[in-house]
Structures are given as C-alpha cells and as structure tokens.
Prior knowledge:
Distance between the termini: 13 Å
Strand content: 15-25%
Amino acid sequence: MPESPTVSDIASYVRAKNAGPFWTxxxxxxxxxxxxxxxxxxxxxxxERVGERYRVDPADVRVFELPELRVVKVSLPRRAPQGGxxxxxxxxxxxxxxxxxMRLA
Length: 105
C-alpha cells in the first residue's frame, strides 16, 4: 500500500518564522481550494499532532484555518527563548521541516 502524501507534497509553500521571542509561526500555503480542503479534512494539522511532533503541550498550540487565503497557520511556543543559550534556530527559519514532512493520514 502506498504511503499517504506529506504536507509539503500538496502545499505550494511552507515557511516558519518568529512570532516574538517565545513563539514560532508556521504558514502552509495551498495552491487551490481542493488542496486546502484535503489538508483540513485530513486531520493532519491538529494541536495534538503538532504538539507531539514538536514536543510541546498541545494546549499551547494554535491552529488557524484561513480558507479565503488557502492558508493554514500554526503557532506554537519555542522550546527555548529566541537568542537564549539553548536556541538553535534564531529566526525559526528551519522549524517548518517537521510539519512539512507530516503525512496526511
């Protein structure tokens, strides 16, 4: 049986960025309404799955679905404050990878 597609397989673009010194935001841009519906209906992007993938409390994860823009936005707490001793990605530029590689099913 073939594996289900990943988020990056159906997205036009996936990016991560700082949302302040304590939060990261990941944006998933979808190319059309069908891809947006596929992602939203897959239950791939839930607070529970994102929390598990990023090792943060799911209660702190926020998922926003913006159908008019065909974007899903995920905000989650950084595991270390920006610029702190244990911060390994100052601008959160690489934090999209774990989410982009998540399978839809």
